[in-house]
Amino acid sequence: MPKKPASPKPSETASRPWALRPASASAQKQWLKASAVEPELMAALRERQRLRPLERSDNPNRTHQLKPPLAEKMVGGARLPQWQHEISGGGRVFYCPDRTHRTVWVTRVDLGHPRETD
Amino acid sequence: MIVGMRRVAESGPQVTYQATDLARHHREVLDAARSGQALLRDKDGTALVLAPAADVERTYEIAELALELIRARRAIDHDAVPRSAALYGDFAWMSVLPDDAQRRFLDELTEGLLVAASGTSLRPVELLLGDWRATAEAWADPDTREALLASEPALLADIEL
Prior knowledge:
The complex is a heterodimer. Chain A is of the alpha+beta class. Chain A has a domain of 81 residues: YaeB-like fold (2-Layer Sandwich). Chain A is built from three helices and seven strands, in the order H-E-H-H-E-E-E-E-E-E. In chain A, the strands form two sheets. Chain A has a five-stranded mixed beta sheet with strand order 1-7-6-5-2. In chain A, a hairpin with a 4-residue loop joins strand 6 and strand 7. Chain A is globular and about 30 Å long. Chain A starts with 9 loop residues before the first helix and ends in an 8-residue tail after the last strand. Chain B is mainly α. Chain B contains seven helices and three strands. In chain B, strands 1-2-3 form a three-stranded mixed beta sheet. In chain B, strand 2 and strand 3 form a beta hairpin. The radius of gyration of chain B is 23 Å and the shape is elongated. The N and C termini of chain B lie far apart (53 Å). Chains A and B meet through strand 1, helix 2, strand 3 and strand 7 of A and helix 5, helix 6 and helix 7 of B.
């Protein structure tokens, strides 16, 4: 009889990085564009979101769980909480953490830079 | 300092120090102040309180937030829509939110302040304010609002950023 795969220990689960995925083509485009404009900022953000997307103690005034009417969002049929991380003075990344699948769905990236036409 | 003075009155039996105790028994006075509050009576009878600065700041912060809460609640309860942002005082940012969200924010803040006023940390209130302010900021921008309200089919489940 084949052995059942061992369930990961809680400590292993806790240290396993989250998967960081775009929730839409437009979110993916925004992420790539932001990464080209601010590579270091976005690399640091990527690291943070993979390791501690729900952490609020490192910079508590920069990570927020949104409230109604923006508290939740449907992603792939699942209703997930919606969070925001302030990546710079005007830069915001919005994401929906899925604790069950340890996946962070990026829903919007906005560097807050003025438009070229402004 | 009504809240602070009530605490002094309710904190049970305590020694009242005289102005001269600051020189003669300064360690005792300071220890009393560090552990809560030391009540000093000046020569003309004026009562003074010596307390940790953090406690006093906290009391002021709670009182100021409570005042702003009353101001905003009054705006919602008494003024017709559309309301001027100025009516909300320091909470002007919340004026962009829908009415039911505004009421929910004030209800949550009321709960948070009641808990904090009982002696717990103000940190949950700070987080609450930050969360609601971020929500209002996102809601105020039409593009962001539309993006955050839309359902996503998650067709890009195999792509890693």
